[in-house]
Write a structure and sequence with these properties.
Length: about 625
């Protein structure tokens, strides 16, 4: 199928083709991030000797049938007659129009198209870094085996999209002399962090990390600084222009092209503020997927994005936010009322490559056509939606405030519940027995009160916001007192109120609700990573995690609110690459491949998501290297 990732065939057979180059073609060392173009289907690399010979016609290390090779790669789909293009360096230059194989990127055998694959995976700068069995055995860089595009709880090395534009080097860098918070509520004094290949190799006490780092590491002195994982925001809207109540109509009539340009800027704002991963919880069209692919392929800078499509709700619900006489051809949401309509929407969004389905169980105070205090979906409807979304590989995030709807969402198996501005003790009890995470977006409610006062809004509506705020903080206190701090994840709802890049402002509310400083930091790192399906991959400094981390001059372990001031963040690293300093982006995008991102060539690949997660485990201490 067009656009599907190539799973390299073969593996393990002995022997040698007479005209082969003698290098093993092992599926575990095939090119990272290889994609098939239109009409390309993976075939056995060499059914006899499991090797790529010098005369083989291969794409991303996989031999192709002539009638399956696209015309621009030398094939003839109509007649099945091969035109004799050998994809070595010159062959790849001639075939450079293929979006997955940039011109001049190739070498033969298992080295083939290494640079193009690195760029496609968002990890490289275009330089050829071959990954082959000999190099791997010698302790070289990460295995380049292709994956299916998302983490399924196994070897995270299978995911090819790991770098978000970061340059990856094999030399180990060790950051020493710092205080270290690992994302799981544990702190190490006089610590060190070892990074290589864009991943954390070791973290913990200095001497232990230095011993694990191997010979001749690059030492970076961080004396007096605190190191912690990059922040994770579990609720954003990267496309929203809203800065206050009056901007909602502007968003409805704004040209989608202008919205897309602003979304790129907004993504950079999060990264500069130390937020290295976000979940976009509702977008216009398929913008979040496009932006996710642009960031992952180095076209622009931003956090890793767990992408939703448009918000979906019943008629007169959250997503039905404009009068029909406007006849908008770029609405903000989709409407579904019957089970058949819901299944069609879910399957269409999955086809477009979304990671997450955002549903409106109740309305919003910002949408005059909906009721924020009423439930638009019942338990059975939510359960049907969740079952279908999980079947096609998407998670479900529910916008809900009324207590009945909150409990129905938890019992129906949604993955994350958001807002919950009207929850009570019954909701807290249900959260304790469910596997979902709660993303309260608390600072948004405070900003609605403060912003409404500043703008002179309707006093009756402001009184309602104040009552919701008081009840919301009380409910958070109940949840924290019940031992559920590790189920509450930070989400800013950025794009509404507050603006973009203000994720750390949520920490002050969590402290007010009774969390300790370390619990609040965990809510913005390890817990939020688990909420968006990336536990162990981001939001932590354990070995094997992506090297997304912050270097902070102040001590966020004592006062997490210092993270709300980007000028206190000395450096932001993404996959081990310095990308921002003191609120300013410092590194340009890595460029990315020419042509279409592979997700747009066929059925979408969900880049980061692990869907069926086990219940969260209690946090451990930092693991030494």
């Amino acid at each position: 199928m067009a656009g599907r990732r190539l799973a390299a065939a073969g593996g393990g057979a002995a022997g040698r083709r007479p005209d082969g180059d003698g290098r093993p073609h092992d599926r575990h060392h095939a090119l990272p991030g290889g994609y098939a173009g239109a009409g390309v289907r993976a075939q056995q690399a060499d059914p006899v000797a499991d090797r790529c010979g010098r005369g083989d016609r291969c794409v991303a290390g996989v031999r192709q049938r002539p009638d399956r090779l696209p015309r621009h790669l030398g094939g003839d789909p109509e007649r099945g007659a091969h035109r004799g293009v050998r994809l070595g360096r010159r062959g790849l230059e001639r075939a450079g129009r293929h979006p997955a194989v940039p011109a001049g990127a190739g070498r033969e055998g298992p080295h083939r198209a290494a640079a193009g694959a690195e760029r496609l995976a968002g990890r490289g700068d275009g330089a050829v870094r071959p990954v082959c069995p000999d190099r791997r055995a010698a302790g070289g860089g990460r295995c380049g085996r292709p994956g299916r595009g998302r983490h399924d709880g196994g070897d995270r090395g299978q995911c090819p999209d790991r770098g978000a534009g970061a340059a990856v080097t094999d030399r180990t860098a060790v950051y020493v002399g710092c205080r270290l918070f690992d994302g799981a509520a544990e702190v190490v004094e006089d610590a060190a962090l070892a990074v290589a290949g864009g991943e954390v190799r070791a973290a913990g006490p200095r001497e232990r990390v230095l011993a694990a780092a191997g010979p001749d590491p690059e030492l970076v002195d961080l004396a007096g600084a605190c190191v912690l994982p990059g922040l994770v925001d579990a609720h954003t809207h990267l496309h929203f222009p809203i800065r206050g109540f009056g901007d909602w109509p502007t968003g409805l009539v704004e040209p989608p092209e202008f919205t897309a340009i602003k979304a790129v800027r907004n993504a950079g704002t999060y990264l500069a503020a130390g937020v290295t991963t976000v979940m976009d919880c509702g977008t216009r069209g398929n913008l979040a997927v496009a932006l996710r692919e642009a960031v992952a392929n180095g076209v622009c800078q931003g956090p890793r994005i767990v992408a939703s499509g448009m918000v979906v709700s019943p008629t007169a619900g959250l997503a039905d936010d404009h009068p029909e006489f406007l006849h908008l051809d770029h609405p903000e949401g989709e409407v579904a009322d019957t089970p058949e309509q819901w299944r069609a929407v879910i399957r269409r969004q999955a086809k477009q490559g979304v990671d997450n389905l955002k549903i409106g169980v109740s309305g919003s105070a910002l949408n005059p056509y909906s009721d924020s205090g009423a439930c638009d979906l019942g338990h059975d409807e939510i359960a049907m939606i969740v079952a279908e979304a999980h079947r096609v590989g998407c998670t479900v995030a529910a916008h809900v405030s009324p207590p009945d709807g909150f409990v129905d969402c938890l019992r129906a198996g949604v993955d994350t519940v958001h807002h919950g501005f009207g929850i009570d003790q019954r909701c807290v009890d249900a959260l304790g027995t469910a596997t979902a995470y709660f993303v309260p977006t608390s600072y948004k409610l405070r900003a609605m009160v403060e912003g409404g006062v500043a703008r002179g809004r309707d006093p009756a509506r402001l009184d309602e916001y104040r009552r919701q705020w008081d009840g919301h903080v009380a409910a958070l206190r109940m949840a924290v007192a019940a031992g559920l701090a590790d189920r509450i994840a930070v989400g800013s709802d950025g794009g509404h109120l507050p603006g973009h890049g203000q994720t750390a402002a949520e920490l002050a509310v969590l402290l007010e609700a009774g969390m300790t400083a370390r619990q609040a930091l965990a809510a913005a790192t390890g817990v939020a990573a688990a909420a968006v399906g990336l536990a162990g991959t981001v939001g932590t400094l354990r070995p094997g995690a992506l090297a997304d981390f912050l270097v902070v001059d102040a001590d966020p372990v004592a006062d997490p609110t210092v993270l709300a001031d980007p000028s206190r963040i000395r450096a932001v690293y993404q996959s081990g690459r310095l990308v921002a300093q003191r609120g300013q982006l410092t590194a340009p995008p890595s460029g990315g491949p020419d042509g279409l991102a592979p997700v747009f060539l066929g059925r979408g690949t969900r880049t980061w998501r692990s869907v069926r997660r086990p219940p969260p485990a209690p946090p451990d201490g930092p693991a030494a290297g």
